[in-house]
Amino acid sequence: MSRRIKRTQTRSDRPTDRRKDERPKAEAARSAGAPAKRGAPKREPGKRTDGDRPRRESFAGERDAPRSEFGRGKGDRVRAPRGEREDRRETFEPRGKRAAAAKPARFGSERSERKPVAAPPPKKPEPETAVLPTKVQTVVVTADENNMRVDRFLEARFPGLSFSHIQRIVRKGELRVNGKRADSKDRLEEGQTVRIPPLKLDAPKVSGVLSEAEQKTLDSLKAMTLYEDDDVLVLNKPVGLAVQGGSGMTRHIDQMLEVMRDAKGQKPRLVHRIDRETSGCLLIAKTRFAASHLTGAFRSRSARKIYWALVAGVPKPKQGRISTYLAKDEGEDDTIMRVAAHGDEGASHAVTYYAVVEASANKLAWVSLKPVTGRTHQLRAHMAHIGHPIVGDPKYFNIENWALPGGLQNRLHLLARRIVIPHPRGGVIDATAPLPPHMLQSWNLLGLEHDRFDPIENAPEE
Protein backbone atom coordinates (compact mmCIF):
# COMPACT_ATOMS: atom_id res chain seq x y z
CA MET A 1 0.00 0.00 0.00
CA SER A 2 1.35 3.36 -0.96
CA ARG A 3 2.36 5.96 1.54
CA ARG A 4 -0.45 8.28 0.52
CA ILE A 5 -3.11 5.69 1.09
CA LYS A 6 -1.75 4.87 4.51
CA ARG A 7 -1.84 8.53 5.50
CA THR A 8 -5.44 8.87 4.40
CA GLN A 9 -6.54 5.77 6.22
CA THR A 10 -4.80 6.88 9.35
CA ARG A 11 -6.65 10.18 9.31
CA SER A 12 -10.03 8.55 8.72
CA ASP A 13 -9.52 6.08 11.54
CA ARG A 14 -8.51 8.77 14.01
CA PRO A 15 -10.87 8.73 16.98
CA THR A 16 -13.03 11.80 17.65
CA ASP A 17 -16.00 12.68 19.90
CA ARG A 18 -17.36 15.41 17.73
CA ARG A 19 -19.92 14.85 15.03
CA LYS A 20 -18.90 15.53 11.49
CA ASP A 21 -21.45 18.33 11.11
CA GLU A 22 -19.99 20.17 14.13
CA ARG A 23 -16.40 20.49 12.92
CA PRO A 24 -14.74 23.86 13.33
CA LYS A 25 -15.28 26.34 10.51
CA ALA A 26 -11.61 26.39 9.57
CA GLU A 27 -11.50 22.59 9.03
CA ALA A 28 -14.80 22.71 7.07
CA ALA A 29 -13.34 25.40 4.80
CA ARG A 30 -10.23 23.25 4.07
CA SER A 31 -12.27 20.16 3.26
CA ALA A 32 -14.88 22.01 1.15
CA GLY A 33 -12.84 21.72 -2.03
CA ALA A 34 -11.67 18.09 -1.46
CA PRO A 35 -13.24 15.30 -3.52
CA ALA A 36 -15.99 13.30 -1.86
CA LYS A 37 -14.89 10.06 -0.20
CA ARG A 38 -16.08 6.70 -1.22
CA GLY A 39 -18.62 5.31 1.09
CA ALA A 40 -19.26 8.65 2.76
CA PRO A 41 -22.67 8.86 4.36
CA LYS A 42 -25.31 10.63 2.26
CA ARG A 43 -26.27 14.10 3.48
CA GLU A 44 -29.90 14.55 4.52
CA PRO A 45 -31.96 17.01 2.47
CA GLY A 46 -32.77 19.21 5.45
CA LYS A 47 -29.18 19.50 6.60
CA ARG A 48 -26.15 21.13 5.10
CA THR A 49 -22.78 22.32 6.26
CA ASP A 50 -21.67 25.90 6.42
CA GLY A 51 -19.32 25.27 3.54
CA ASP A 52 -21.96 24.11 1.03
CA ARG A 53 -22.72 27.61 -0.21
CA PRO A 54 -21.37 31.08 0.52
CA ARG A 55 -23.26 32.81 3.31
CA ARG A 56 -24.54 35.67 1.13
CA GLU A 57 -26.20 33.30 -1.36
CA SER A 58 -27.81 31.19 1.32
CA PHE A 59 -29.32 34.28 2.97
CA ALA A 60 -30.69 35.47 -0.34
CA GLY A 61 -32.28 32.07 -0.97
CA GLU A 62 -33.82 31.96 2.47
CA ARG A 63 -35.22 35.49 2.22
CA ASP A 64 -36.89 35.04 -1.14
CA ALA A 65 -38.21 31.53 -0.49
CA PRO A 66 -42.01 31.20 -0.40
CA ARG A 67 -43.71 31.11 2.96
CA SER A 68 -46.43 28.76 4.07
CA GLU A 69 -49.59 29.99 5.73
CA PHE A 70 -48.15 29.36 9.19
CA GLY A 71 -44.64 30.61 8.50
CA ARG A 72 -41.48 28.66 7.67
CA GLY A 73 -39.51 26.47 10.00
CA LYS A 74 -35.82 25.93 10.06
CA GLY A 75 -36.15 22.68 8.17
CA ASP A 76 -38.48 24.13 5.50
CA ARG A 77 -35.89 26.31 3.81
CA VAL A 78 -35.85 25.98 0.05
CA ARG A 79 -32.89 27.00 -2.03
CA ALA A 80 -33.51 28.57 -5.42
CA PRO A 81 -31.80 27.20 -8.54
CA ARG A 82 -28.45 28.62 -9.52
CA GLY A 83 -29.82 30.59 -12.47
CA GLU A 84 -32.34 32.42 -10.33
CA ARG A 85 -29.72 33.13 -7.69
CA GLU A 86 -27.45 34.70 -10.29
CA ASP A 87 -30.34 36.86 -11.55
CA ARG A 88 -30.96 38.07 -8.01
CA ARG A 89 -27.37 39.05 -7.57
CA GLU A 90 -27.45 41.10 -10.75
CA THR A 91 -30.68 42.92 -9.72
CA PHE A 92 -29.84 43.44 -6.09
CA GLU A 93 -32.20 45.70 -4.15
CA PRO A 94 -31.82 47.22 -0.70
CA ARG A 95 -32.89 44.99 2.10
CA GLY A 96 -35.81 47.18 3.14
CA LYS A 97 -37.36 47.33 -0.36
CA ARG A 98 -36.91 43.60 -1.01
CA ALA A 99 -38.44 42.71 2.34
CA ALA A 100 -41.40 44.97 1.63
CA ALA A 101 -41.94 43.42 -1.80
CA ALA A 102 -41.99 39.91 -0.30
CA LYS A 103 -44.99 40.70 1.90
CA PRO A 104 -48.39 39.42 0.83
CA ALA A 105 -50.46 41.82 -1.28
CA ARG A 106 -53.14 42.16 1.36
CA PHE A 107 -50.78 44.03 3.67
CA GLY A 108 -49.92 46.52 0.95
CA SER A 109 -53.59 47.16 0.14
CA GLU A 110 -54.41 47.75 3.77
CA ARG A 111 -51.61 50.29 4.11
CA SER A 112 -52.62 52.17 0.96
CA GLU A 113 -56.16 52.53 2.25
CA ARG A 114 -55.07 53.82 5.61
CA LYS A 115 -55.97 57.54 5.88
CA PRO A 116 -53.28 59.95 7.01
CA VAL A 117 -53.76 61.47 10.40
CA ALA A 118 -54.86 65.09 10.02
CA ALA A 119 -52.65 67.67 11.64
CA PRO A 120 -54.32 69.83 14.28
CA PRO A 121 -55.62 73.12 12.81
CA PRO A 122 -53.41 76.14 13.48
CA LYS A 123 -54.59 78.48 16.14
CA LYS A 124 -56.18 81.67 14.86
CA PRO A 125 -54.36 84.82 15.83
CA GLU A 126 -56.11 86.73 18.55
CA PRO A 127 -57.35 90.20 17.62
CA GLU A 128 -54.98 93.00 18.46
CA THR A 129 -56.52 95.53 20.78
CA ALA A 130 -55.35 99.13 20.87
CA VAL A 131 -53.98 100.50 24.12
CA LEU A 132 -56.22 103.24 25.47
CA PRO A 133 -54.14 106.40 25.97
CA THR A 134 -55.18 107.82 29.34
CA LYS A 135 -53.00 110.94 29.05
CA VAL A 136 -51.43 113.14 26.43
CA GLN A 137 -48.75 111.35 24.45
CA THR A 138 -46.37 112.28 21.64
CA VAL A 139 -45.54 109.82 18.87
CA VAL A 140 -43.17 109.98 15.91
CA VAL A 141 -44.29 109.29 12.35
CA THR A 142 -42.54 106.20 10.97
CA ALA A 143 -41.42 105.47 7.42
CA ASP A 144 -44.45 103.25 6.82
CA GLU A 145 -46.71 106.14 7.85
CA ASN A 146 -45.08 108.68 5.55
CA ASN A 147 -47.58 110.63 3.39
CA MET A 148 -50.51 109.23 5.43
CA ARG A 149 -53.44 111.51 6.19
CA VAL A 150 -53.93 112.57 9.80
CA ASP A 151 -57.29 110.81 10.14
CA ARG A 152 -55.93 107.61 8.55
CA PHE A 153 -52.92 107.81 10.83
CA LEU A 154 -55.16 107.82 13.90
CA GLU A 155 -57.34 105.01 12.54
CA ALA A 156 -54.26 102.87 11.92
CA ARG A 157 -52.72 103.59 15.33
CA PHE A 158 -55.96 103.14 17.27
CA PRO A 159 -58.40 100.69 15.62
CA GLY A 160 -61.88 101.33 16.96
CA LEU A 161 -61.50 105.10 17.15
CA SER A 162 -64.72 106.58 15.78
CA PHE A 163 -64.70 109.05 12.89
CA SER A 164 -66.65 111.63 14.86
CA HIS A 165 -64.10 111.51 17.69
CA ILE A 166 -61.23 112.03 15.22
CA GLN A 167 -62.95 115.05 13.69
CA ARG A 168 -63.70 116.50 17.10
CA ILE A 169 -60.14 116.41 18.47
CA VAL A 170 -58.79 117.78 15.17
CA ARG A 171 -61.39 120.55 15.01
CA LYS A 172 -60.67 121.60 18.62
CA GLY A 173 -56.93 121.68 17.99
CA GLU A 174 -56.19 118.98 20.56
CA LEU A 175 -54.12 117.07 17.99
CA ARG A 176 -50.99 118.89 16.85
CA VAL A 177 -48.26 118.08 14.36
CA ASN A 178 -44.83 119.53 15.24
CA GLY A 179 -46.62 121.81 17.70
CA LYS A 180 -49.08 123.24 15.14
CA ARG A 181 -52.76 122.68 14.51
CA ALA A 182 -53.53 120.21 11.72
CA ASP A 183 -56.46 119.34 9.51
CA SER A 184 -57.70 115.77 9.19
CA LYS A 185 -56.77 115.83 5.47
CA ASP A 186 -53.19 117.01 6.06
CA ARG A 187 -50.52 114.46 5.18
CA LEU A 188 -47.78 113.49 7.59
CA GLU A 189 -44.07 113.16 6.90
CA GLU A 190 -41.59 110.73 8.39
CA GLY A 191 -39.99 112.05 11.56
CA GLN A 192 -42.78 114.49 12.47
CA THR A 193 -44.07 114.46 16.04
CA VAL A 194 -47.79 114.12 16.66
CA ARG A 195 -49.36 115.20 19.96
CA ILE A 196 -52.31 112.90 20.73
CA PRO A 197 -54.78 113.76 23.53
CA PRO A 198 -56.56 111.15 25.65
CA LEU A 199 -58.80 109.16 23.31
CA LYS A 200 -62.12 107.43 23.74
CA LEU A 201 -62.09 104.12 21.91
CA ASP A 202 -65.17 102.16 21.00
CA ALA A 203 -65.60 98.77 22.65
CA PRO A 204 -63.58 96.16 20.72
CA LYS A 205 -65.62 93.80 18.59
CA VAL A 206 -65.36 90.04 19.03
CA SER A 207 -64.13 88.61 15.74
CA GLY A 208 -66.69 86.47 13.95
CA VAL A 209 -69.53 87.26 16.36
CA LEU A 210 -72.15 89.73 15.10
CA SER A 211 -75.30 90.89 16.78
CA GLU A 212 -78.62 90.82 14.97
CA ALA A 213 -78.35 94.53 14.11
CA GLU A 214 -74.77 94.11 12.86
CA GLN A 215 -75.78 91.17 10.71
CA LYS A 216 -78.49 93.31 9.11
CA THR A 217 -75.91 96.00 8.42
CA LEU A 218 -73.59 93.45 6.83
CA ASP A 219 -76.47 92.16 4.68
CA SER A 220 -77.20 95.73 3.57
CA LEU A 221 -73.60 96.20 2.48
CA LYS A 222 -73.69 92.92 0.57
CA ALA A 223 -76.87 94.05 -1.21
CA MET A 224 -75.08 97.25 -2.31
CA THR A 225 -71.99 95.45 -3.59
CA LEU A 226 -71.16 95.86 -7.27
CA TYR A 227 -67.65 94.35 -7.10
CA GLU A 228 -65.58 92.73 -4.37
CA ASP A 229 -62.31 90.85 -3.96
CA ASP A 230 -59.70 90.50 -1.20
CA ASP A 231 -58.49 94.10 -1.63
CA VAL A 232 -61.28 96.19 -3.12
CA LEU A 233 -65.00 96.76 -2.58
CA VAL A 234 -67.25 98.84 -4.86
CA LEU A 235 -70.66 99.76 -3.45
CA ASN A 236 -73.75 101.16 -5.14
CA LYS A 237 -74.49 103.81 -2.54
CA PRO A 238 -78.20 104.63 -2.36
CA VAL A 239 -79.63 108.15 -2.35
CA GLY A 240 -79.85 109.74 1.10
CA LEU A 241 -77.13 107.62 2.76
CA ALA A 242 -74.11 109.69 3.74
CA VAL A 243 -70.57 108.45 3.16
CA GLN A 244 -69.23 109.94 6.40
CA GLY A 245 -70.82 111.06 9.63
CA GLY A 246 -71.63 114.56 10.75
CA SER A 247 -73.43 116.28 13.56
CA GLY A 248 -76.46 114.27 14.60
CA MET A 249 -75.86 111.58 11.97
CA THR A 250 -75.84 108.02 13.26
CA ARG A 251 -75.96 105.95 10.07
CA HIS A 252 -73.43 106.33 7.25
CA ILE A 253 -71.16 104.13 5.13
CA ASP A 254 -68.06 104.67 7.28
CA GLN A 255 -69.97 103.56 10.37
CA MET A 256 -71.50 100.58 8.57
CA LEU A 257 -68.02 99.34 7.60
CA GLU A 258 -67.33 98.66 11.29
CA VAL A 259 -68.99 95.25 10.87
CA MET A 260 -66.28 94.29 8.36
CA ARG A 261 -63.31 94.65 10.70
CA ASP A 262 -60.76 91.85 10.37
CA ALA A 263 -59.01 89.86 13.12
CA LYS A 264 -56.43 92.63 13.56
CA GLY A 265 -59.10 95.26 14.12
CA GLN A 266 -58.61 96.92 10.72
CA LYS A 267 -61.75 97.94 8.86
CA PRO A 268 -62.18 98.84 5.16
CA ARG A 269 -61.20 102.40 4.28
CA LEU A 270 -62.94 105.01 2.17
CA VAL A 271 -60.88 105.96 -0.87
CA HIS A 272 -63.08 108.80 -2.15
CA ARG A 273 -66.48 110.35 -1.35
CA ILE A 274 -69.71 111.23 -3.09
CA ASP A 275 -72.48 113.51 -1.85
CA ARG A 276 -75.24 112.24 0.38
CA GLU A 277 -77.95 112.78 -2.26
CA THR A 278 -75.80 111.29 -5.05
CA SER A 279 -76.10 107.58 -5.70
CA GLY A 280 -73.75 105.19 -7.48
CA CYS A 281 -70.22 103.81 -7.39
CA LEU A 282 -68.28 104.22 -4.17
CA LEU A 283 -64.78 102.72 -4.04
CA ILE A 284 -63.53 101.23 -0.77
CA ALA A 285 -60.16 99.66 0.09
CA LYS A 286 -60.31 96.55 2.26
CA THR A 287 -56.58 96.54 3.08
CA ARG A 288 -53.96 99.18 3.82
CA PHE A 289 -52.03 97.99 0.78
CA ALA A 290 -55.02 98.64 -1.49
CA ALA A 291 -55.77 102.01 0.13
CA SER A 292 -52.26 103.25 -0.58
CA HIS A 293 -52.40 102.26 -4.26
CA LEU A 294 -55.95 103.47 -4.90
CA THR A 295 -55.43 106.89 -3.30
CA GLY A 296 -52.25 107.17 -5.37
CA ALA A 297 -54.30 106.46 -8.51
CA PHE A 298 -56.67 109.32 -7.63
CA ARG A 299 -53.78 111.69 -6.96
CA SER A 300 -52.13 110.81 -10.27
CA ARG A 301 -55.52 111.11 -12.02
CA SER A 302 -55.29 107.61 -13.46
CA ALA A 303 -58.78 106.91 -12.10
CA ARG A 304 -61.70 107.73 -14.40
CA LYS A 305 -65.15 108.56 -13.01
CA ILE A 306 -68.26 109.07 -15.13
CA TYR A 307 -71.46 110.67 -13.82
CA TRP A 308 -74.93 110.93 -15.33
CA ALA A 309 -77.14 113.94 -14.65
CA LEU A 310 -80.45 115.42 -15.78
CA VAL A 311 -80.03 119.17 -16.21
CA ALA A 312 -82.30 122.12 -17.02
CA GLY A 313 -82.03 123.18 -20.66
CA VAL A 314 -79.59 121.88 -23.27
CA PRO A 315 -75.94 122.96 -22.94
CA LYS A 316 -74.29 124.53 -26.00
CA PRO A 317 -71.95 123.37 -27.34
CA LYS A 318 -73.09 119.81 -26.69
CA GLN A 319 -69.58 118.80 -25.66
CA GLY A 320 -67.23 121.00 -23.71
CA ARG A 321 -64.79 121.60 -20.88
CA ILE A 322 -65.46 123.59 -17.74
CA SER A 323 -62.44 125.02 -15.92
CA THR A 324 -62.81 127.27 -12.88
CA TYR A 325 -61.49 127.86 -9.38
CA LEU A 326 -63.75 126.81 -6.54
CA ALA A 327 -63.69 127.94 -2.92
CA LYS A 328 -65.78 127.02 0.11
CA ASP A 329 -68.26 129.36 1.72
CA GLU A 330 -68.96 127.75 5.07
CA GLY A 331 -72.07 128.82 6.94
CA GLU A 332 -73.47 127.77 10.26
CA ASP A 333 -75.58 124.99 8.82
CA ASP A 334 -74.23 124.31 5.35
CA THR A 335 -71.30 124.59 2.95
CA ILE A 336 -71.58 126.07 -0.54
CA MET A 337 -68.90 126.02 -3.25
CA ARG A 338 -68.55 129.25 -5.19
CA VAL A 339 -66.63 130.06 -8.33
CA ALA A 340 -63.55 132.03 -7.26
CA ALA A 341 -60.72 133.84 -8.96
CA HIS A 342 -57.23 132.49 -9.24
CA GLY A 343 -55.29 133.44 -6.13
CA ASP A 344 -58.31 133.73 -3.85
CA GLU A 345 -57.85 132.26 -0.39
CA GLY A 346 -58.82 128.58 -0.36
CA ALA A 347 -59.50 128.51 -4.11
CA SER A 348 -58.68 125.26 -5.93
CA HIS A 349 -58.63 124.58 -9.66
CA ALA A 350 -61.43 122.31 -10.90
CA VAL A 351 -61.88 120.79 -14.37
CA THR A 352 -64.91 118.90 -15.74
CA TYR A 353 -65.70 117.50 -19.19
CA TYR A 354 -69.34 117.17 -20.24
CA ALA A 355 -71.29 115.76 -23.18
CA VAL A 356 -75.02 115.83 -23.98
CA VAL A 357 -76.25 112.29 -24.52
CA GLU A 358 -79.90 113.05 -25.32
CA ALA A 359 -82.29 116.01 -25.01
CA SER A 360 -86.00 116.18 -24.23
CA ALA A 361 -87.95 119.02 -25.92
CA ASN A 362 -85.08 121.48 -25.33
CA LYS A 363 -86.18 121.75 -21.71
CA LEU A 364 -84.18 118.92 -20.19
CA ALA A 365 -80.98 117.16 -21.17
CA TRP A 366 -79.29 113.97 -20.15
CA VAL A 367 -75.65 114.92 -19.63
CA SER A 368 -72.64 112.69 -19.06
CA LEU A 369 -69.92 114.23 -16.88
CA LYS A 370 -66.28 113.31 -16.36
CA PRO A 371 -64.50 115.21 -13.57
CA VAL A 372 -60.73 115.51 -13.88
CA THR A 373 -60.32 116.91 -10.36
CA GLY A 374 -62.31 115.93 -7.29
CA ARG A 375 -63.47 119.09 -5.51
CA THR A 376 -66.44 119.21 -3.17
CA HIS A 377 -69.73 119.62 -5.11
CA GLN A 378 -67.64 120.15 -8.26
CA LEU A 379 -70.15 118.83 -10.81
CA ARG A 380 -73.11 120.55 -9.19
CA ALA A 381 -71.31 123.90 -8.99
CA HIS A 382 -69.95 123.64 -12.54
CA MET A 383 -73.31 122.84 -14.16
CA ALA A 384 -74.93 125.74 -12.29
CA HIS A 385 -72.03 127.98 -13.40
CA ILE A 386 -72.76 127.37 -17.11
CA GLY A 387 -76.48 127.94 -16.58
CA HIS A 388 -77.69 124.33 -16.60
CA PRO A 389 -78.08 123.23 -12.99
CA ILE A 390 -78.91 119.65 -12.11
CA VAL A 391 -82.59 118.92 -11.62
CA GLY A 392 -83.58 118.56 -7.95
CA ASP A 393 -80.41 120.18 -6.57
CA PRO A 394 -81.45 122.06 -3.40
CA LYS A 395 -78.20 124.08 -3.22
CA TYR A 396 -77.24 125.05 -6.75
CA PHE A 397 -80.49 125.09 -8.77
CA ASN A 398 -80.90 128.85 -9.26
CA ILE A 399 -83.29 129.25 -12.23
CA GLU A 400 -86.26 131.39 -11.24
CA ASN A 401 -89.81 130.48 -12.23
CA TRP A 402 -88.73 127.10 -13.52
CA ALA A 403 -91.42 124.43 -13.17
CA LEU A 404 -90.51 120.79 -12.69
CA PRO A 405 -92.16 118.69 -15.44
CA GLY A 406 -95.03 116.58 -14.19
CA GLY A 407 -94.19 113.12 -12.91
CA LEU A 408 -90.56 113.92 -12.06
CA GLN A 409 -89.50 113.76 -8.43
CA ASN A 410 -87.84 116.82 -6.93
CA ARG A 411 -84.69 114.93 -5.95
CA LEU A 412 -81.11 115.33 -7.07
CA HIS A 413 -80.73 113.68 -10.49
CA LEU A 414 -77.03 112.81 -10.26
CA LEU A 415 -75.55 109.31 -10.49
CA ALA A 416 -71.95 108.15 -10.10
CA ARG A 417 -72.45 105.89 -13.10
CA ARG A 418 -69.06 104.26 -13.60
CA ILE A 419 -65.57 104.04 -12.14
CA VAL A 420 -62.49 102.69 -13.93
CA ILE A 421 -59.24 102.45 -11.96
CA PRO A 422 -56.10 100.27 -11.99
CA HIS A 423 -56.30 97.37 -9.54
CA PRO A 424 -53.60 97.40 -6.83
CA ARG A 425 -52.42 93.91 -7.87
CA GLY A 426 -52.71 94.35 -11.63
CA GLY A 427 -55.52 94.65 -14.11
CA VAL A 428 -58.36 97.17 -14.06
CA ILE A 429 -61.45 97.64 -11.89
CA ASP A 430 -64.45 98.65 -14.02
CA ALA A 431 -67.76 98.94 -12.14
CA THR A 432 -71.08 100.39 -13.33
CA ALA A 433 -74.07 101.38 -11.20
CA PRO A 434 -77.71 101.30 -12.41
CA LEU A 435 -80.03 104.29 -12.34
CA PRO A 436 -81.63 104.87 -8.92
CA PRO A 437 -85.44 104.50 -8.78
CA HIS A 438 -86.29 108.23 -9.06
CA MET A 439 -83.91 108.73 -12.03
CA LEU A 440 -85.17 105.57 -13.75
CA GLN A 441 -88.71 106.92 -13.40
CA SER A 442 -87.64 110.22 -15.03
CA TRP A 443 -85.83 108.42 -17.86
CA ASN A 444 -88.95 106.36 -18.59
CA LEU A 445 -91.28 109.40 -18.49
CA LEU A 446 -89.03 111.40 -20.83
CA GLY A 447 -88.44 108.48 -23.19
CA LEU A 448 -84.66 108.47 -22.64
CA GLU A 449 -82.88 105.24 -23.53
CA HIS A 450 -80.46 104.51 -20.70
CA ASP A 451 -78.46 102.05 -22.85
CA ARG A 452 -77.50 104.65 -25.48
CA PHE A 453 -73.90 105.27 -26.47
CA ASP A 454 -72.17 107.61 -24.04
CA PRO A 455 -70.14 110.24 -26.00
CA ILE A 456 -68.07 111.10 -22.92
CA GLU A 457 -66.11 107.88 -23.58
CA ASN A 458 -64.30 109.63 -26.43
CA ALA A 459 -63.94 113.00 -24.73
CA PRO A 460 -60.36 114.27 -24.43
CA GLU A 461 -58.52 114.02 -21.12
CA GLU A 462 -55.75 116.08 -19.59
User: What is the 3D form?
Assistant: globular
Please state the structural category: alpha+beta
Distance between the termini: 130 Å
Please give the count of helices.
Answer: 13
- Unreliably modeled segments: 1-12, 57-65, 68-75, 88-94, 96-118, 124-130
What would the average pLDDT be, to the nearest integer?
77
Order of helices and strands: HHHHHHEHHEEEHEEHEEHEEEEEHEEH
The percent range for strand residues is 15-25%
Largest sheet: 11 strands, mixed
Q: Percent range for helical residues? A: 25-40%
Q: What's the Cα radius of gyration?
A: 45 Å
Number of beta-strand segments = 15
Features of the shown structure:
single chain; 462 residues; alpha+beta; eleven-stranded mixed β-sheet; 13 helices; disordered N terminus
Question: How would you describe this protein?
Answer:
With 462 residues, the protein is α+β, with helices and mostly antiparallel strands. It contains 13 helices and 15 strands. The protein has helices at 3-12, 25-31, 55-64, 82-90, 95-101, 105-113, 150-157, 163-171, 212-224, 253-256, 288-299, 378-385, 437-446; strands spanning 137-140, 176-177, 180-181, 193-196, 225-228, 232-237, 269-270, 279-285, 304-312, 319-330, 335-340, 348-360, 364-371, 414-422, 428-432. Strands 5, 6, 7, 8, 9, 10, 11, 12, 13, 14 and 15 form an 11-stranded mixed beta sheet that branches. The chain has a 4-stranded antiparallel beta sheet with strand order 1-4-2-3, with no helix packed on it. The termini are far apart.
